[in-house]
Design goal:
alpha+beta, five-stranded antiparallel sheet, five-stranded mixed sheet, 12 helices, 56% helix, rod-shaped
Length: 453
């Protein structure tokens, strides 16, 4: 799970839980408030009835019933019972509702003065009233229909609000977190695209100085140090390779002169020829390192001249013939209306020729019949140069590392080389915003394709 999804989930869950707890607390508090308010209303009603019976002598039981029936404060399904000190019922309202009571309830009232309890849908309030002459007990029962309707409405309101605002919170939280984390996504995308060819890439930081900006600043500082170290390494490789070429050239010249000397014995010539071969291999390795160094130096100073790839191909084939005169290259061009335009490539002519020579040399060295097919095509305005030869192919694991430095497959046994040729090709094509692929369309068939965009 990504960080933005995890934050969205945690924030949404937190809001859901807190809103649920808040709704529950509100409902419970209002429910208790309703009970307490209704208890006070029952208390006022009970005490008023007792006071009318006790304090107003002109009010008899029949008159009290008429007053009670026409009272503007009459409660829903109200029932009132009044008892004297001997637990004798002295007044009962005319309602049909019933109150389940016992002498134990009245005794409890005398001891505790009041009680309030639930009997089914009814709520019963009892009160003990003490006068100088007599004691009275009053029980009053009613249903708080109005309060319960408000409580039910509150419940539905809280449930609907909970569902609606929870869904809204999940949507808005996801949107806001994604928006807030968008700079981090851009940061990740830029880091992902950084390689040895664009170490000068930096992350733009804003002025708000949040955590992402702090990370970006530290990242830029780290990249500055990495770029400096990388450039120093490349400069050292280039300088060392360049300095090594001079003594190697002298050694090569001296060995060649010694071999050509008539006074040198046959055994000595054979020995020197073997040494010369090793020196040539070492020279070739140093030349390859110099080419890689030149590519790194040239990446920020690309040649913007336009060159025709067919001319570069012919020049590469001519140079290759000097080293491999017996190698046959079959040439095909797939005609198309946009071929002339596609053949025009902007870049460095020398580097492009080196790339083509290395691919052709690879096809020559690993061919089993000393020939290769070179085909030019231009589908959809994109130039594709295909080089196909027959011979041993690479396994899937070897293909994954084909363009890594010093990588050589099982088919290279008995063949001289250092595994830098295809690496150089790959780097040159990347410099020209192009790429190379390797496939095996058939058994014992190798196919390299150079794609120019």
């Amino acid at each position: 799970m990504t960080l933005k999804n995890r934050i969205s989930l945690l924030v949404s869950l937190l809001f859901t839980i807190l809103f649920g707890l808040a709704s529950t607390v509100i409902f419970v508090l209002y429910s208790n408030f309703r009970k307490e308010e209704f208890r006070e209303r029952l208390e006022i009603k009970a005490l008023s009835n007792i006071k009318l019976l006790v304090d107003v002598k002109e009010v008899d039981e029949q008159l009290l019933k008429m007053i009670d029936q026409n009272s503007i404060n009459k409660l829903y399904d109200e029932k009132t019972l009044v008892f004297d000190s001997h637990f004798k019922l002295i007044y009962s309202s005319i309602d049909d509702a019933k109150i389940n009571w016992s002498v134990e309830d009245l005794k409890y009232l005398k001891k505790h003065k009041t009680f309030f309890k639930q009997q089914g849908d009814y709520e019963v309030y009892g009160v003990f009233y003490d006068t100088k002459d007599k004691d009275f007990y009053a029980l009053i029962s009613a249903t708080d229909d109005y309060g319960k309707r408000k409580l039910l409405f509150l419940r539905y309101t809280l449930v609907v609000s909970y569902i609606f605002f929870t869904c809204l919170c999940w949507v808005l939280t996801s949107f806001m977190v994604r928006k807030a984390m968008n700079p981090l996504g851009l940061f990740h995308q830029k880091i992902k695209n950084i390689n040895e060819n664009n170490l000068d890439t930096r992350i733009e930081s804003k002025s708000n100085k949040d955590e992402i900006d702090l990370i970006a600043n530290e990242f830029n500082f780290m990249m500055d140090r990495i770029e400096v170290s990388y450039q120093r390494q490349k400069e050292f490789t280039a300088h060392a390779s360049h300095e090594l070429r001079t003594p190697l050239s002298r050694i090569t010249a001296q060995i060649e002169n010694t071999i050509a000397d008539s006074t040198t014995s046959l055994k000595g010539k054979n020995f020197l020829t073997a040494i010369l071969s090793d020196v040539n291999h070492l020279t070739e390795l140093i030349s390859s390192l110099l080419i890689l160094s030149k590519i790194d130096t040239n990446k920020n100073n690309e040649d913007n001249e336009i060159h025709r790839m067919d001319e570069i191909l012919f020049s590469a084939i001519e140079n290759l013939k000097k080293s491999f005169p017996d190698f046959v290259i079959l040439f095909e061009i797939e005609e198309s209306e946009n071929l002339d335009t596609a053949l025009e490539i902007k870049g460095n002519k020398n580097l492009l020729e080196i790339a083509v020579i290395n691919v052709l040399k690879n096809a020559c060295v690993y061919s089993d019949n000393q020939q290769a097919l070179l085909k030019i095509s231009a589908p959809e305005d994109h130039l594709i140069i295909s080089i196909l030869n027959t011979g041993k192919t690479l396994s899937e694991s070897e293909q994954k590392n084909l363009f890594e430095p010093f990588m050589r497959g099982e088919n290279s046994k008995g063949t001289s080389g250092f595994g830098l040729g295809l690496r150089i090709v790959n780097r040159i094509l990347k410099l020209h915003k192009s790429h190379i692929t390797y496939t095996t369309p058939e058994d014992n068939v190798n196919l390299f394709q150079l794609f120019f965009h």
